[in-house]
Amino acid sequence: MTSPVIELKNASKDFEQGGRAIPALAPTGLNVANHEFVALVGPSGCGKSTVLNMVAGLFPPSGGQVLYEGELVADLNRRVGYMTQKDTLLPWRTTAANIAAPLELACRAMPRSERDDRVARMIELVGLKGFENHYPGELSGGMRKRAALARMLVYDPDTLLMDEPFGALDAQLKLVMHEELQRIVGDGRKTVLFVTHDLGEAIALADRVVVFTSRPGRVKKVREIELERPRNVYRVRFETAFGDLHEELWNELKDEVRKGTDA
Ligand SMILES: Nc1ncnc2c1ncn2[C@@H]1O[C@H](COP(=O)(O)OP(=O)(O)OP(=O)(O)O)[C@@H](O)[C@H]1O
Ligand SMILES: [Mg+2]
Fold first, then answer.
1. Count of C-beta atoms within a 10 Å radius of residue 50
2. Where are the domains of the chain?
3. Please, what CATH class does the domain formed by 78-192 belong to?
């Protein structure tokens, strides 16, 4: 068996607040295999973004280890593309210039014409044609999410970390984005760790769904999603197996969400 691309070994995280250590993530084990799509679901504040931040190397765990391709993540992990929960488009750059930013940083030797070509392809892919020269402040919330998606993909990283990437989109646009994402990562071409509050989205897209407990989060349940691939993201929702999975996972999740709101 090949080693996992992402591996958390008893990784935990405490945050300091007013001189006290607040546990955000309890010791957690989690593996993501090469070209696997894993979705994390769990109540607000249970440490989902914290997991992605540690895989991206933004900060180390307080205990345990976070590994990427078998090596400790000790610094900013440049092997992953990260679509953070918070919109981080640069307000002073146009849409096209925002999408080009990772290429400017990481692929300095790339000729300008190739960079422009790639950016244009990404803009087309996420349906932002005509908005290349708009600034983030002139885009809708959904358009900003699509620009952030394009910015992550332009660099063509092997692994994608996505934190509620479509949370702000309306239901129809969400389905369109699911189809796009499947096309992009489908056929096992990328490894994806995807955080969402939308259980249906998790089941429709993932190979495995991991349910976290309320804070401090730990893995409560891991469920293989055996729905056939390639999947039709619209039709799969009407399959009996989809309904069964949704019910099973919701039963795991609902108590945690309730506990989360009591806190
Ligand atoms: N940089 C930080 N400093 C202090 N506390 C933090 C920091 N980042 C996260 N936390 C705390 O850690 C806990 C987990 O946060 P995290 O953002 O990982 O949750 P989440 O599962 O992503 O929640 P949501 O679904 O609302 O995005 C929360 O209690 C949060 O307040
Ligand atoms: Mg979060």
1. 23
2. 1-41+61-67, 78-192
3. alpha beta
